[in-house]
Every structure is written in structure tokens, then in C-alpha cells.
Write a structure and sequence with these properties.
Helix content: over 70%
Structural class: mainly alpha
Strand content: under 5%
Number of domains: 1
Number of strands: 0
Distance between the termini: 79 Å
Largest sheet: none
Shape: globular
Oligomer: single chain
């Protein structure tokens, strides 16, 4: 597949699956009245478990795609033309994270609400991509295997020492910065440890790129992803418990007790293995387009569900109030609507961007004309004032 087309379509399929899971998950989690269902039921537990896989997959795939494109160019370091695009992309995603948290009415009134500083998915992904870019630059003069090792080491350290990092006191930082490291003030995600999933995606992307011409690429990738994934899910807790018992290091015991990061990483690897295995059977173009427009879908869902910009969203009207079947049907309609609007935007974005650019240029011209006119008027009034006091000659 890589030899014919550099785009990895199974990755687009994974992104599509992840964004669809996110849409229905956010809708049901926010609007379903949990008092009406048995939260211990098998069906609900399975839904909750698979919903928990969504974010790790999304972060990992984001790191995979970003790094795969970054290292695609033969130039290295500052000479890499994709470097500037990568930095711009990271800043754009970070900026969108703040923009979606902004309330336009509050801004017009000169107020910035606290929710603006809450850190969410886009903040962490945007910042993570900038970190990946920084790591790439730091070791760009060395062998590519140094960068591969650095990405994997970053993931292992962040996941292993997460209990210690979570226990640190971040009150010395300003609140806007502290929210990137602690959920104590309402943040949904934190850069630590979620950066670890992005760097693991970068690690996988580099290996995939190195062996892209191998005829055994998918056979080996599927086998390794499946075996390591199952190993992390079934055996990583026991390994950390053993390490804690032998060394007496408390952090190993803490990981063994609450080993959600490594187990979720195992889930991610199984998802990778599954989509690679089915890569020749996934051919729906709409599904691929959904995977290629996840950012637009995320923005649209945020506006409709949480009332971004206006404060008017489904979450505000139906929070924890829907019966199970109403929530399921509503989630289906909501998911289809978000994808439909995003794909319509993708189809017409060239025309829309042109109109927006024309409007922006028209506003810019009027502002420039207004400034020149105002400047001329001020000069005339200043001259008349000086003439009145007989100072115009000076």
C-alpha cells in the first residue's frame, strides 16, 4: 500500500472510528440520565470500556500521522520544509483549543470566564505536536534511531512515573499553566501523561517509515502489535508489582495498583493490529473522508453539544436528563449531523475560504481608508488650532 500511495488509509479508518466513538461517547456521557440504568450491567460496562479506548487511540494516531509526515522529507533539521508546517499545525490546534473555550458574549463585555483556561484534548494534542517537533530538532543531527529511542523512552518514563507526577504540587504555576499538569481546577486532559501516547505514535510512525518497503511489513506489524498489546493488558500489572517487590520502589507499586496507561496502550496496539489486518477490506470513501476531517468534526461537535462561542448547546438543555433509548437515538442523529456538516464544509471550503478572504480584505481596506481619513482630519484640526494661537509658522 505504501509503495503505491504514501497515504496510510488504515490510519484514516482508525481516525474515523475514533472520532465516531468520541461523538457518541460525549453525547451519551453528557446527556444520559445514569440514574435510569444499571451502571453495573455488562452492556454498559462494555460501552464504557470501549469509550475509554477512544482518547488513547486519538492521541496515538495524531502522533503517528504528524511524525510520519515530518520525517517523510529527505531533508533534516531546519532544512526540512515540513518543519514549519508542523509548528504551524501545532499552534493552530492549540489556538483552536482556546477558541472553542471562549465565550463571545463574555469577550464583548470584557470578561474572560474561567472555562477559557480549562485544558482539553486540542490543547494537549497541539502542545504535544510542538514537543515532538522540539525533540526532532534536538536530535536531528544524530542517527534516526536516536529519535526513535527518545520517543519510546519518553512514553515509558511518563507512564511509569505518572503516579509521582500526579502527586506534585503545581500551585507555584499561574492557573492557566497549572491546568496543563493537574485536573484539580477542572482540566479534562493534562499534557502529562497524555504526551506519552503521542510520542508512542511517533515511535510507531518512524518504525513504519523505516520498513515501509518491506514485503513483511504488515505481517510483522500485526503480529508484534497484537502480541505486545495482549502482553500489556494481561501482564504489565504483574511485571510492575514484581519490580516493586524486588526494588522497593513505591512508584512501581503505584503503577501496578492503577495500571490504566499501559493497559490502554495495549488496547491501542490491538486496535492498530485490527485495522491493519482489515486494511484491504476497508474501502468506504465516506469513512476515509471522515477520518481526514476529524478536526472539523471535533469543532462542530463542540459547538453543537457544549455551546462553544454562544454558551447555548445541547449539554446546557439536556444535561443528564435523557432516557437510555432517547440518548442512543439522539447520539446516532448527533453523530450523523456532525459528520454531514464537516463533509459539506470540506466540499465547499475552497469557496468559503475565498469569501472569508474577500470579506477580510474589504474590512482591511475600509480600516486603512478610515485611518488615512482620520489622520488627514486630525492634521487639519491641528493646523487650525495652531493657527488660532499664531503658532502655525513654527
Amino acid at each position: 500500500m505504501i509503495a503505491k500511495n504514501s497515504r496510510l488509509y488504515f490510519i484514516d479508518a482508525m481516525r474515523a472510528w475514533a472520532i465516531l466513538m468520541m461523538l457518541q461517547g460525549h453525547f451519551i456521557e453528557g446527556l444520559l440520565d445514569t440514574s435510569l440504568i444499571n451502571t453495573n450491567s455488562i452492556s454498559y460496562s462494555q460501552w464504557s470500556y470501549f469509550r475509554g479506548i477512544t482518547a488513547p487511540v486519538f492521541f496515538t494516531v495524531s502522533g503517528f500521522i504528524f511524525t510520519y509526515l515530518l520525517i517523510k522529507s529527505p531533508e533534516k533539521g531546519l532544512a526540512n520544509p515540513r518543519l514549519k508546517k508542523g509548528i504551524k499545525r501545532g499552534l493552530q490546534i492549540l489556538g483552536l483549543g482556546y477558541l472553542l473555550r471562549a465565550n463571545l458574549l463574555g469577550l464583548l463585555l470584557g470578561e474572560v470566564y474561567y472555562s477559557f483556561f480549562i485544558v482539553d484534548v486540542l490543547h494537549c494534542i497541539g502542545l504535544s505536536l510542538l514537543v515532538v517537533t522540539g525533540l526532532y530538532l534536538v536530535v536531528s543531527k544524530f542517527s534516526s534511531w536516536v529519535l526513535v529511542s527518545l520517543f519510546l523512552l519518553t512514553t515509558l518514563l511518563l507512564f511509569t512515573f505518572e503516579p509521582y507526577l500526579a502527586s506534585l504540587n503545581y500551585t507555584i504555576f499561574p492557573l492557566a499553566l497549572a491546568n496543563y499538569f493537574t485536573k484539580a481546577h477542572g482540566s479534562i486532559f493534562t499534557i502529562l501523561p497524555w504526551l506519552g501516547y503521542v510520542t508512542f505514535g511517533s515511535f510507531m510512525a518512524m518504525l513504519f517509515s523505516f520498513y515501509s518497503k518491506s514485503r513483511m511489513l504488515y505481517t510483522i506489524s500485526i503480529t508484534l502489535s497484537g502480541c505486545i498489546g495482549l502482553g500489556l493488558i494481561l501482564g504489565s500489572s504483574a511485571v510492575f508489582k514484581f519490580m516493586g517487590d524486588v526494588t522497593g520502589v513505591q512508584v512501581f507499586q503505584s503503577v501496578a495498583i492503577n495500571n490504566y496507561l499501559f493497559m490502554r496502550l495495549g488496547d491501542v496496539l490491538l486496535v492498530f493490529a485490527l485495522f491493519m489486518l482489515l486494511r484491504n477490506y476497508i474501502s468506504n470513501k465516506i469513512f476515509f473522508r471522515i477520518g481526514q476531517n476529524t478536526l472539523a468534526i471535533y469543532i462542530i461537535h463542540f459547538v453543537i453539544l457544549y455551546g462553544s462561542f454562544t454558551g447555548l448547546g445541547l449539554y446546557g438543555f439536556f444535561h443528564k436528563s435523557l432516557a437510555p433509548w432517547s440518548a442512543i437515538v439522539g447520539a446516532l442523529i448527533f453523530t450523523v449531523a456532525c459528520c454531514f456538516l464537516a463533509l459539506k464544509y470540506d466540499t465547499h471550503k475552497g469557496v468559503l475560504h475565498k469569501h472569508v478572504k474577500n470579506i477580510a480584505n474589504a474590512i482591511k481596506s475600509k480600516l486603512i481608508y478610515g485611518l488615512h481619513t482620520g489622520k488627514s482630519v486630525l492634521k487639519i484640526k491641528a493646523y487650525r488650532s495652531l493657527k488660532l494661537f499664531r503658532l502655525n509658522k513654527n
